[in-house]
Amino acid sequence: MKLQPSDQLTNTQVKTGLHLILKDGLATETMNTLTAGTFLVAIALYMGASNIQIGILAALPTLTNIFQLVSVWLVQRFNNRRKITVIGAFCARVPLLVIGTLPLLFSNSASVSALIFLLSFQYLFASIAGGSWNSWMRDLIPQQILGSYFSHRSRLMQILNVTLSLFIALSIDHIKEHYPAYEITAYAGMFIISGITGMWGVYALARTPEPKPTPINDNIVKLFSKPLTVPNFRKLLVFNSIWIFAFNLVTPFFSVYMMKTLGLPLVYVICLNIVSQVSSITSIKLWGRCSDRYSNKTIIRICAPVYIGCIMAWSVIGVMNAALLLPLLVVMHILMGASNAGITLALQNIGLKLAPAEEGIVYLVTKNIVTAVFSATAPLVGGLLADFFTSHFVIHLFGRGQWNLFFMAGAATGVLSMKLLKAVQEDGELDKKLLVANLQHTFKKRVRYWHHLPVLRRKFYQRTALVIFKKGLSFDFDDLIKFKGWDGKNTKK
Q1: E strands along 145-191, which residues?
Q2: Poorest-confidence range of 80-84, 118-122, 387-391?
Q3: pTM (predicted TM-score)
Q4: Which of 101, 150, 273, 376 could form a disulfide with 62 if both were Cys (CB 3.0 to 4.6 A apart)?
C-alpha cells in the first residue's frame, strides 16, 4: 500500500477519509479503554504495584508528549504525515501485544517494571504519531464541518467507552469471584484484544488520504520559537495552560472527596462518573453545531463559568442534607459533563483554526507540549495543597474546612484563566448572548415537543446506547456537508 500524499483530493476521497478517521477513533478508544485509566490501575494493583509505580503509569502519557518534537523533525525531513502516523501507530500497538502475550507464555513474567517499560514505548510512539496526525487532520477535514465532525466522533467514542467499560468491569468482577486463578489471563486477554483492535485502526489510517503538505524548511529551533512570537497564538497558549492547570488541580480529587469525606460507596462514585459521561455524550453534538455556527471562544465563555460554578459547589456540598446530597451530586455531574464536553471540543478546534496551514504541525505540537507540562504538574500541586490544607487548617467553613479552601483555590485559578481568554481573537466570534438565546430557544422547543408526544410514541423513540452507536456508524456526511455548504471543491492544500 502506497502511503504518499496527493496533490489534490476529490470529494469522494475526503468523504472516505472522514469515515476512516471515525473507524480509527473507535479502534483507538477501544484500545485505551482496555489498557488505560481504571483498568490499568487494577492490573497494576494485581501485580503488586506501589503508589510510586502507579503514579509513573499515570504520568507516562503526559511525560512522553515531549517526543512530539521528533514528529515535527520527521515531517520536516520526509514531508509525509500519513507514513509517519501509520508507522508510529503500528509501533505503539506492538508493546500491547507483547504485554498480553508474556503472562501466557511465562507465568512469572507479570511484573510492574516490565509493564512500565513496555508501556513507555507504547506512549512514546503514540506521541510521535499524534503530532503528525493533528497536522494531517488540520488539512484533511474541511473547516466548515470541523466542529460537527469532531463532536460526532467524540460522542461515538464516549458511548463506546461507557458501554465497553461497564461490560469489562462486570466481566472482571465475575472472573474474580468465580475463577480467581484466571484473573491474570483475563488481563492478558484485554491487552491482546487492545493490540489487535489498535492494528485495525492502523489499517484504517493507512487507507486514509492525505493532502500534500507545504514543506517545512526552517531550522527546528526557529520553528518552535515562532509560535511563541505570534501574539494571538501565545495568548491562546497562556489561557489553555492556566485552564488545564485549574481543571487538573481539583478534578482528580472529586472521587477522593466523595469516598473518603462524604463516605459514598464506590458503586455510587462509578455511577456518578457514568452520569457525567452520558451528559457529555448527549451534549457534544450540540456544541459541535454551535462551534461551526458561532465560535469556539463563545462556547468556552459559556461552558467554563458553569464548570467553575460546579467546582465552587463542591465547597458547600458537605453540609447538605443527606436526602439532598445525592440528587445534587447528580445535577453537578450532569453540568460538569456537558460543560467539559464543550470546553474540550472548543479548545481542540480553536487550536486547529489558529494554526497556519503551512506550519500547522509546529503550532499544534507546541500547544500540546506546553499544555502537557501544566497538565502533569497540576495533580501533583493539587495533592500537595490538599495535604497542606488538611494538616494546617482546622477552620470548618461550611463543614469541611480543608476541602473548601482547596476547591476554592481551583475555582479561583479557573476565574483567572477566563480573564486571559478575553485577549484571544478568533474569526467569526459572536456575542455569547446570541448563543445563550439560541440554547434557550432550543431547550424550550424540545420541552414543548416532548410534552405533547403520547407516552407510547415517546418510549418508542427512546434509544439505547447500542442503537445510537449503530446509527453513528452510518452517519451521513453527505447531509452534513450539504448543510454546511461544502461541496468538496477547493481541497488543494
Answers
A1: none
A2: 387-391
A3: 0.65
A4: 376
Taking CA atoms, 182 is separated from 42, 44, 46, 97, 222, in Å, by 15, 16, 12, 18, 54
Domain check: are 119 and 240 in the same one? Answer: no
Report how far residue 484's alpha carbon sits from residue 146's, in angstroms, rounded to the nearest whole number: 10
Copy the grid coordinates of residue 467.
442503537
Cα 299 to Cα 155: distance, rounded to the nearest angstrom: 17
Residues 166 and 286 in one domain: no
What are the backbone angles phi and psi of residue 487, rounded to the nearest 5°?
A: -115, 10
pLDDT of residue 94: 95
Residue 240 and residue 308 in one domain: yes
CATH at residue 380: 1.20.1250.20
- Judge if 320 and 423 occupy the same domain: yes
Question: What is the count of structural domains for the chain?
Answer: 2
Beta bridge partners of 6: 211
Specify whether 232 is located in the same domain as 206: no
Domain containing residue 256: 227-452
Helix axes 112-140, 68-78, angle to 10 degrees: 50
- Are residue 360 and residue 320 in the same domain, yes or no? yes
Q: In this structure, which amino acid lies at residue 304?
A: A
Eight-class DSSP state of 36:
S
Handedness of CA 98, 100, 105, 106 (dihedral sign): positive
pLDDT (0 to 100) of residue 362 = 77
Does the pLDDT of residue 399 top 70, yes or no? no
Q: How far is CA 458 from CA 259, 285, 389, 447, 462, in A?
A: 37, 21, 50, 12, 7
Same domain, 172 and 314: no
Identify the DSSP state of 244: H
Number of C-alpha atoms within 13 angstroms, CB side, residue 106? 8
Strand partners, 211: 6
86, 133, 135 from 2: Cα distances, Å: 12, 17, 20
The answer to whether 23 touches 204, Cβ cutoff 8 Å, is yes
Which residue did the predictor score with more confidence, 353 or 397?
353
Is 322 in contact with 341 (CB distance < 8 Å)? no
pLDDT on residue 337? 92
